[in-house]
Amino acid sequence: MAEPPFPPEPPGTARDRAADVVTQQACAWFALIFEGSASEAQREQWRQWMQADPQHAKAYAELEDIWILSAALPAVKAPAPAPARGVSRRRFVQLGMAACSAALATGCATLWFKGENLSFADLHTAVGETRTERLADGSVIELAGNTALDLDFSGATRRLRLLRGEVYCSVAADARPLRIDTDAGAVISEQGAFCLSCEGSSADLAVSARTARVEIPGQRAALSAGEGLTFTRTALGPIQQAELDQLMAWRSGSLVFFNTPLAKVVQHVQRWREGRIFIADERLATRPVSVIFNRHRPEQMLDVLARTLPIQVNRYTDLLTIIRTA
């Protein structure tokens, strides 16, 4: 029977949690195949290992589920249909820790735990950091934690691209509209102030002064001070009264949420706290939360959540936390 080409070397408690030999082998194969450095002979050995025992394919399929849950990397597909899945809590934790160990072995840990490295962007902040910049036209832009954007200021345009995160923009008056592109669509303003956040294909806009408009293919919406909306690549949400004090509280040191889905709260927390936070229960992810955090004490944020909700917060390393229903 084919053996993995290298044994993972999980540190400390990870080794204890990943003691199962089949799990270790699955993680070693997963890391090698995902990294893309496997030779054709190694890929054939991998296929033989997968087919040698149903438990091998099952362990590999469970590992895929952990990576899919992370929403950080695409799954590495097995060559044959996987057995029915049903991961126990103990198995989930064991595989999650083993996946971390395999990622460390291949250098994938930075991506998995911290997301894509966007330090090449024209303006960027690390997790927990803020930054204020005055642009060439006199506009002022404030970056929240873990935010990145590119600038394209020429004689004819004032254009930015928000790659990730959240910004507050005070737009200086100019004949050229200032445009911020995101993966969800574009925000345009001739003069005004607004808060814009974007994660993936969804974005939130709240206008605090004058006007701004949102444009996506085939649709547009104009907003005035005090209004906000959520938009995606394909749809504009309804224009609503924006809770400006809540949305912009990060600028003064707080994170404020009122009836906000837990998944969105976690998304914001991860701009200020190192590591990845996973919610293991889909229903829990949609539960509304009302809570206030001190932005300068990120290590206390999860403790506050645990006191606010009937949840169990399990920290497996400084970089991995899983939230479950208590």
UniProtKB/TrEMBL annotation:
Naturally occurring in which organism (per UniProt): Pseudomonas brassicae
Domain FecR protein as annotated: residue spans: 122-208
InterPro entries, A to Z: FecR, FecR_N, Ferrdict_sens_TM
Any matching Pfam family: FecR
Domain FecR N-terminal: 24-65
Molecular function terms, GO-annotated: sigma factor antagonist activity
Gene3D superfamilies named among the record's database cross-references: 2.60.120.1440, 3.55.50.30
PANTHER family according to UniProt: PERIPLASMIC SIGNAL SENSOR AND SIGMA FACTOR ACTIVATOR FECR-RELATED, PROTEIN FECR
Name the record gives this protein: DUF4880 domain-containing protein
